[in-house]
Structure formats: structure tokens, C-alpha cells
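Check my protein:
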Amino acid sequence: MTLLNKEPVKRAEKALKEFDNSMMVIELNSTARTAVDAANSLNCEVGAIVKSLLFRTDDTFLLCLVSGDKRCSLNKLKKITLIKDISMASPEDVKLQTGYTIGGVSPVGHIKKIKIFIDESLKRFKDIFAAAGHPNCVFKINFENLLKITQGEIKDIVE
């Protein structure tokens, strides 16, 4: 069975197709579980990989999309949101909120509505790649369309 038939990948692909019918999920022969793995698999710069990081706040969750060569700053998130208690979400919370497992968290097709912040350092690249529901599945998109498809807010969230 191809990975494209797996439910999380189908969910990500459905969101992509609803946005732009020409968008497609790319199934890789090697893993894209980490940004470095994905960059090696795609033969691109690590910074062109979108890391989808879920954070737990007092009463909700926040998805941060950051460049593969950057680190998300908890201090900046706390200042932007004015929330003191922010931490990385547990693998269980990631699955419950997004419907995806860590390593395959897509910026689109979540099972629950999640507020999304996008780091502007991703703008450096003509094309960027994000997970599509499985560690071996990605999709290619540009920064402007990532902003539109996720309805995310551009924020300075990296160290």
C-alpha cells in the first residue's frame, strides 16, 4: 500500500486540493522526519523545510511554522501572546489536536481549528516544503500560498 492512501496523508492532500487543485503530495523514498532528513531527501537547503511545532498554552494550542534552520523562541511566543505558560505539546496532544503524529505534522488538514503563527524567515526561499501527514510525505508551496492556505499570522518567533 502506498503512503498516499493513509488517512492522515489523504486529509492533508484534500486540504491542498481544495486550495489549489494542482498541488500534490510528494511521497519520498527516504524519511523527512526531521528538517535535516527532509532537506537531504529533497536536495534542498534545511531552511526551506517548514517545521510544524505545536505548543500548549493555558487553555489552547498554537501551531508555529518555522524554517528548518531556525529554533522557535518560547520567550518570543510568550511576549507575542501575553501568555506566561507555553510549552511544547506532548506527542499525544499533537495527535489529538492535529490528527498527525510528530514527524508528519502538516500545516494543513488539522482535525481541530488551531491558531497558526508563521515565521517570516521562510520568505527567503522561492519554494518551501512541509510535511503532508506522514514522515515520508511532503508538499511544495511558496511563502505567500502557505500564508493563505493556513490563514496564519506572520510573527517573529525564532531565536
